[in-house]
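Students often ask why inverse folding is considered easier than folding. One informal answer: many sequences map to the same fold, so there is more than one right answer. In these notes we will look at a single instance of the problem. The structure comes first.
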């Protein structure tokens, strides 16, 4: 996909915009336009939505030449076609957009086929992921998987499986890249995800609390204020919802408990727009990750990404090597400056290329540096490593 860092800002209805998406992409991650991106009112038809999406995509292109993606909602509930999905597809083709974050309850073959025919990269995020479903999704031919744990913001899975439980199960079973989602708000979470075999992270809640995100200032402050134990949660039409205990959220919970889901829907149905975009913390919902308890300030998108990718002393100590029969798989938590220097000193670009022919590398994390390190370790020059790192690597080897 040509992204500098494997950090993707999540598709989130109402709370993405061209400015926000471009800010993430310009900071080295990849921004994703979600439903209603850049809007304050609902589209009146599929055509109206397509016009608005086209304008937003053009704005992104004017603000960045880096990769970005668009949310693509597969038809659900047994439908094979959806007029809104068709309209988004036409826009992608016309605007030459090359990446989608596709969501659904299963991969819809017709959709995948036509996206691939247009040479569009399809990153699939199942809304209620299980090991079985994600293994099937790989077989169907998607390019990468976003694996979402129950900690996530937005509509949550029907299965209460946490990111920590689900991601390592999937990375053990699939060959395509896995991107971890749910509850990741900083470098520590990202490193944990990489150590579980993920190749990237997909973050929603943390990116809402950024200067460039269109969510209201009141909402951003409420997310900073909330404690993890204060959220309320209920079953919604499309999974589960967790929200800061707004009046609307409390009322919805009460009605669900009384067995009145249709009445409850009146309170949370438009909640994301009212609560997150308009900042009405009485009548709306603020449906974010329980990790929100750990968010303390509004940052820029650049600051969020810098914090994740900057190596710390701690980072230099932690990495895992895993040797398979035909590949060296390295989960490097963060390539620190020492390791990077050694790698670049030890191998010229030409040597790296030659070795790349001999050793198939499954690239992880910060791919080029990690691949270099893998090649280096596969080489005779491994003895160049000195000091603590040498001992550490010897242990691993
Ligand atoms: C307010 C909000 C709205 C969301 N809306 C969408 C959506 O329209 N489409 C989608 O694919 N995912 C949506 N999501 C889910 C995110 O794409 C992502 O999976 C989730 O935010 C990741 O978990 P995190 O918030 O813990 O980082 C939404 C999430 C939030 C917080």
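Output (designed amino acids):
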């Amino acid at each position: 996909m040509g992204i500098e860092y494997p950090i993707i800002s999540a598709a989130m209805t109402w709370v993405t915009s061209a400015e926000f998406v471009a800010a993430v992409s310009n900071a080295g991650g990849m921004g994703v336009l979600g439903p209603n991106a850049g809007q304050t009112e609902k589209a009146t038809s599929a055509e109206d939505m397509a016009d608005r999406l086209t304008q937003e995509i053009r704005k992104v292109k004017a603000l960045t030449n880096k990769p970005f993606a668009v949310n693509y909602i597969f038809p659900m509930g047994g439908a094979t076609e959806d007029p809104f999905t068709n309209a988004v597809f036409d826009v992608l083709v016309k605007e030459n957009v090359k990446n989608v974050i596709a969501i659904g309850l299963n991969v819809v073959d017709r959709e995948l086929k036509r996206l691939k025919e247009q040479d569009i990269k399809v990153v699939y995020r199942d809304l209620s992921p299980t090991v079985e479903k994600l293994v099937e999704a790989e077989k169907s031919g998607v390019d990468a998987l976003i694996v979402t744990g129950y900690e996530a913001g937005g509509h949550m899975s029907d299965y209460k499986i946490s990111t920590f439980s689900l991601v390592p199960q999937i990375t053990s079973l699939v060959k395509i890249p896995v991107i971890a989602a749910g509850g990741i708000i900083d470098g520590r979470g990202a490193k944990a995800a990489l150590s579980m075999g993920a190749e990237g992270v997909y973050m929603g809640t943390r990116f809402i609390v950024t200067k460039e995100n269109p969510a209201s200032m009141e909402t951003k402050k409420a997310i900073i204020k909330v404690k993890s134990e204060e959220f309320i949660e209920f079953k919604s039409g499309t999974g589960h919802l967790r929200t800061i205990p707004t009046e609307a959220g409390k009322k919805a919970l009460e009605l669900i408990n009384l067995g009145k889901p249709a009445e409850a829907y009146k309170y949370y149905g438009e909640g994301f727009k009212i609560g997150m975009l308009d900042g009405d913390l009485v009548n709306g919902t603020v449906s974010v990750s329980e990790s929100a308890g750990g968010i303390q300030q509004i940052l820029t998108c650049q600051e969020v990404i810098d914090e994740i990718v900057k190596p710390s002393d701690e980072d230099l100590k932690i990495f895992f090597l895993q040797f398979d029969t035909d590949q060296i798989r390295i989960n490097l938590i963060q390539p620190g400056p020492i390791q990077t220097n050694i790698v670049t000193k030890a191998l010229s670009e030409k040597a790296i290329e030659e070795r790349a022919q001999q050793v198939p590398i499954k690239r992880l994390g910060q791919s080029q540096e990690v691949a270099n390190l893998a090649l280096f370790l596969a080489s005779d020059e491994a003895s160049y490593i000195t000091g603590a790192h040498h001992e550490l690597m010897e242990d691993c080897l």
